[in-house]
Amino acid sequence: MTDDAALRERIAPCGLDCGRCLDNPDSPIGRLSRELARELGGFGQRAAFFARLDPVFDAYADFERVLERLGKGGCSGCRTGHCLLGDCRVKDCTRERGVSYCFECPEFGGCDPGLPPGLAERWRDNNRRMAEMGLAAYAAWQAGRPRY
């Protein structure tokens, strides 16, 4: 896989970093969640004992459920045909228009991506930044920032 292809697989058309998304089973979040679950092993059986020492462990079953979900993931990136955000129109729109990223489309400035307001603003900012920086520099910039 070329560097450009790897970056296109990792960076979604909207500019989000699918490679680090909590729903991507191959992301650091997914891998580290599985590693933590393995390390904790059967701790759930001992959580009641530890809850007597520190009440925070009363919620261990909830934590374990979240940890399991993070370890499974459910999406490997919207370019694979699945998007966690069901109303997002970006992946279909870029495919129909034959572009890899929204900023490459001449209609980018007037688009409605079908995202909630905060995420729509982030989508617009991400694409402007990609256009200014170039994809490789943008991906490096994203990698140095917290994902959420």
Structure in words:
The chain is mainly alpha-helical and 148 residues long. It folds into 2 domains: 1-16 and 83-148; 25-73, no CATH class. Helices cover 51% and strands 0% of the residues. It has 7 helices and no strands. It has helices at residues 3-10, 28-40, 47-53, 60-72, 90-97, 117-133, 135-143. Helix 2 (28-40) packs across helix 4 and helix 6 packs across helix 7. The chain is elongated, with a radius of gyration of 19 Å. The two termini are 28 Å apart.
Please give the structural blueprint.
Blueprint: H1 3-10, H2 28-40, H3 47-53, H4 60-72, H5 90-97, H6 117-133, H7 135-143
Helix pairs in contact: 2-4, 6-7
Q: What features would you highlight for this structure?
A:
2 domains, 148 residues, DUF3795 domain-containing protein, DUF3795
Measured as a percent range, the helix fraction is: 40-55%
Structural class: mainly alpha
What oligomerization state is this entry in?
A: single chain
H and E string: HHHHHHH
Average residue-wise pLDDT: 91
- By DSSP, the count of extended strands is 0
Shape annotation: elongated
C-alpha termini separation:
28 Å
Contiguous uncertain segments of 5+ residues: none
Q: How many structural domains?
A: 2
Alpha plus pi helix count: 7
Pfam families: DUF3795
Organism: Solidesulfovibrio magneticus str. Maddingley MBC34
Protein name: DUF3795 domain-containing protein
Short summary:
The protein is built from seven helices and no strands.
